[in-house]
Design goal:
Elements lengths: L1 H17 L5 H29 L12 H8 L5
Helix pairs in contact: 1-2, 2-3
């Protein structure tokens, strides 16, 4: 959600710079796309660690593949 918030803030910065109006659908799309990308990145890292082994980043210890799959449901996949 933090990553998605960053992308939404970038959209508002673009609005401030250009004056082009932002619709609620556009902001929702940005948030869902950012959520999708962040979760898929975590899933790819976990899968790669399962295949190759090695050390795991501290943040990845908080995630599991089933949890990430459930998080993806609101993003529409």
């Amino acid at each position: 959600m933090v990553i998605a918030t960053g992308f939404i803030l970038r959209a508002y910065a673009g609005y401030a710079a250009t004056g082009v109006a932002l619709s609620q659908w556009f902001l929702l799309d940005i948030a869902m796309l950012a959520l999708f990308l962040a979760v898929e990145k975590r899933k790819a890292e976990l899968r790669l660690l399962a295949v190759r082994g090695g050390t795991i980043r501290v943040v990845l210890r908080r995630y599991s593949l089933p949890l990430l799959t459930r998080i993806m449901a609101p993003a529409g996949t």
